[in-house]
Write a structure and sequence with these properties.
The chain has about 350 residues and is α/β, with parallel strands linked by helices. It has two domains: about 170 residues, D-Maltodextrin-Binding Protein, domain 2 (3-Layer(aba) Sandwich); about 170 residues, D-Maltodextrin-Binding Protein, domain 2, CATH 3.40.190.10. It contains 16 helices and 13 strands. The longest helix is centred in the first third of the chain and has 24 residues.
Length: about 350
């Protein structure tokens, strides 16, 4: 028995040594995740590549959900070092990480972003409420004749939803289920709108699960069109289809104000100041997550983290603000900078 234990221990040691050697063989940082965080991470990676002796990190835009799936698959060269996310990691994802040996994870909040509904500047700017958004895009809505009864969404035009809106066809290009932007959109805009409807607000008090299922389920009849993880492609499609609206992060609006405009939501415009001050109702934090086990093995990991959390990058006047990222308050930035410096890990389930 003792000999068998020694053999097992030796095999485990060799396995760990092999994984360490494999990681050491990779000479660049591998990053996956959110399409919203992608442009910010890309700018940091390019700056990092220019200003250090390390290779520019390789970044894939996989969506937040897709990023966590890859990130949590294991430790070693075949798995990414960092995943970007436009929402916080879910407990189910942390459990999957733990099951695959990914136990020490550093959470880094990097700033804030607004989710916009934008359309071509060649047409009317939309002024929507969150209630309008829910009624336009939910799979099921309360029956106008009997609000206690749910029916398949009958609304075909924006005017059907709200008589003050134009009589144009409801056609919204948005992200797929793997996207953190979609997760945040259904939570902040759709659920926020459902709460404004008396019958659904009452349902929420009685049965939160049933309420959430209604609030988070989007139409599948062509009014909501999954347009993939490439937000730049949505911007291009809005230029081609003047009546359509598109859902994406504020930074993509900020970089394309010559051709698209953001809708007002509950009377608030999606501007840098409105999001920073908490006035715009559809805004959310942005993150990235780091495997602590990779930091001292993959060349440049610590330096990349230092670059991203430097004041010249994510500060109030940092270069990421030029790309549309809304910086955190000074105290919050310092808190996360300290967590990164200490490589403080999350509590695991």
């Amino acid at each position: 028995m003792k000999v068998r234990s020694l053999v097992i221990a030796g095999a485990v040691s060799l396995s760990l040594l092999g994984a360490h050697s494999a990681m050491a063989a990779r000479d660049y940082i591998s990053i996956v995740g959110s399409s919203t965080v992608y442009p910010f991470a890309t700018v940091v990676a390019e700056q990092f590549g220019k200003s250090t002796e390390f290779k520019t990190p390789k970044i894939e835009s996989t969506g937040s959900g897709g990023g966590f799936k890859l990130f949590c698959a294991g430790i070693g060269v075949s798995h990414p070092d960092i995943t970007n996310a436009s929402r916080a990691v879910k407990s189910s994802e942390l459990k999957k990480c733990a099951e695959n040996g990914v136990g020490d994870i550093v959470e880094v909040k990097i700033g804030y972003d607004g989710i916009v509904l934008a359309n071509s500047k060649e047409t009317q700017q939309m002024e929507l409420s969150r209630k309008d958004i829910f009624l336009a895009l939910a799979k099921q809505v309360p029956d106008p004749q009997d609000p206690a009864k749910m029916i398949d969404n009958p609304y075909m035009t924006w005017k059907d939803v709200n008589t003050s809106l134009p009589a144009t066809k409801i056609e919204v290009l948005g992200p797929p289920p793997t996207s953190g932007t979609r997760d945040a959109f259904v939570e902040l805009a759709m659920e926020g709108g459902a709460k404004k409807i008396d019958s659904l607000a009452a349902l929420r008090k009685e049965d939160k699960k049933a309420f959430k299922n209604i609030a988070h389920t989007l139409r599948e009849d062509g009014a909501y069109i999954e347009a993939g993880e490439n937000d730049n492609l949505i911007v291009q499609k809005l230029q081609a289809n003047k009546d359509a609206l598109g859902i994406f992060g504020f930074s993509f609006l900020d970089q394309n104000t010559d051709v698209i405009q953001g809708s007002l939501v509950d009377g608030e415009a999606p501007t840098f100041d409105n999001i920073a001050e908490g006035n715009y109702p559809v805004s959310r934090p942005l993150f990235f997550y780091v495997k602590k086990a990779h930091v001292d093995v993959i060349p440049g990991m610590k330096n990349y983290l230092d670059e991203f959390t430097s004041e010249k990058a994510w500060g109030a006047e940092g270069y990421l603000t030029d790309k549309g990222m809304i910086p955190m308050p000074d105290k919050e930035r310092q808190q996360f900078a300290d967590s990164v410096a200490e490589l403080k890990t999350m509590d695991m389930p």
